Amino acid sequence: MFKKVLIANRGEIALRIHRACKEMGIETVAVHSTADENSMVVRLADESVCIGPPAAKDSYLNIPAILTAAAITGAEAIHPGYGFLSENAEFARMVEEHGFAFIGPKPEHIESMGDKVVAKETVQTLGLPVVPGSAGALGSVEDAIATAEEWGLPVIIKAASGGGGKGMKVVRDIKDMAEAYSTARSEAKANFGDDTVYMEKFLEKPRHIEIQVFGDGKGGGIHLGERDCSIQRRHQKVVEEGPSPVLTDEEREYIGGVSADVVKKMQYRGAGTFEFLFEEGKFYFMEMNTRIQVEHPVTEMITGIDLVCEQIRIAAGEELTFKKDNIRLRGHSIEVRVNAENPRTFMPSPGMIKEYHPAGGLGIRMDSAIYKGYSIPPYYDSMVGKLIVHGRDRAECLRRLHRAIDETVIEGIETTLPLHKWIISQPEFISGDYTIHWLEQQLAKLDEADKAA
């Protein structure tokens, strides 16, 4: 096992990794920008190294600075968390070339799954169902029009190297294709440095279902159930829960089984997530995330398995500590993402935390790196924490989440907690009858009502 791990990230995920390491008896090195010198993980880590100024490109994306920090501190492995360099194949390759262990997948898997076109082609040959669409990248507007005419409108154009809703355009009328194609390519180039786009049939009322998988890198693989991430805004997840309130046991067993089989065939290493759209009883592969997910605590709550510890063990060459026969999914879990944003306008709200009191009690977990007196910098993602609850069933879980939201105090900034309280009070959410479009539709109705008032 490793003696020292460098954490190449910030915020709550950096603190989450630190905690896992300490429980395993591993020393930690926190790297940070000048804006994060007072962060919780810097305070708690055994060592810390400043790797640059606030801008992410000069610090958390600065590969030479991170590798140098690992070398001078004697770290044996690097954990990238999520975001930043976590799905950068070149970074993973350089980490290993410089003699460190990369706590994540093999570079070739990050590379192949990072290109959405290649990923779709790869998993289709391995047995996963995919969304109908272009055979590969779109080469021109004419290609886009021809593909749309083949599959029928509506369609969605997506960035091949994309994520987070960037470079996505829905087309419902063929006359809008040229503008959508051009805009998607421009956004893809600006956000990912790659203007390659492809097309898929746009599903009108899908759910977003994802399967947590783990591989040992030697042909062994397993799944840990699903998470339903259908409450979204602008293609970004807002609320996640597991298990899904709409899947049957047969559907759950099918999609988990085929996902585990693909992991085995790939000889995939570490944690990964297959993301699917689900509509009318059918699953359609969207992408694979080759990293730990923001919503991984949902799976931890219903399985009792520490996914970050498992990542570290696999990277150190050890075996998985669980097998299919001893995995038991217990109860229900829901996670809400707490962002430093206005809950209606979604404008960022950086600033100093004047008071902080996280909810407590049975089945409640708050993953956050904030504390009273901490100043949230304006340079990074607005998520400041994740409130996760667990109950014996979904009804108990919802009651517990209501209490936990009411009990959580974060003063000095605006947060999205009021939005979450509203979401989980809506009849559609309580019944589980919602799609990936539901939240945006409801927010649009609220906006219209405000304008009319």
Task: Describe the largest sheet.
Answer: 8 strands, antiparallel
CATH architectural designation of the largest domain: 2-Layer Sandwich
How is the largest sheet built, in terms of strand order?
13-12-9-10-11-14-19-17
Structural category: alpha+beta
Strand content: 25-35%
The CATH topology of the largest domain comes to D-amino Acid Aminotransferase, Chain A, domain 1
User: What's the pLDDT, averaged over the residues?
Assistant: 95
Structural commentary:
- The protein is α+β, with helices and mostly antiparallel strands.
- The protein is built from 15 helices and 20 strands.
- A hairpin with a 2-residue loop joins strand 12 and strand 13 (282-289).
- The longest helix is centred in the middle third of the chain and has 18 residues, at 249-266.
- The relative contact order is 0.11.
Brief account:
With 453 residues, this protein is of the alpha+beta class. The chain contains 15 helices and 20 strands.
Topology, element by element:
Elements lengths: L3 E4 L3 H13 L3 E7 L6 H5 L2 E6 L10 H11 L3 E3 L9 H9 L3 E2 L4 H8 L1 H11 L14 H11 L3 E5 L9 E3 L5 H16 L4 E5 L5 E10 L4 E13 L2 E7 L6 H18 L2 E11 L2 E8 L6 H8 L3 H9 L16 E8 L11 E2 L2 E3 L6 E5 L6 E2 L6 E9 L2 H14 L1 E3 L5 H7 L3 H5 L6 H15 L1
Parallel strand pairs: 1-2, 1-4, 2-3, 4-5
Antiparallel strand pairs: 6-7, 6-8, 9-10, 9-12, 10-11, 11-14, 12-13, 14-19, 15-18, 16-20, 17-19
Helix pairs in contact: 4-5
Provide key terms for this protein.
453 residues; alpha+beta; Rossmann fold; Dna Ligase, domain 1; D-amino Acid Aminotransferase, Chain A, domain 1; 3 domains; eight-stranded antiparallel sheet; five-stranded parallel sheet
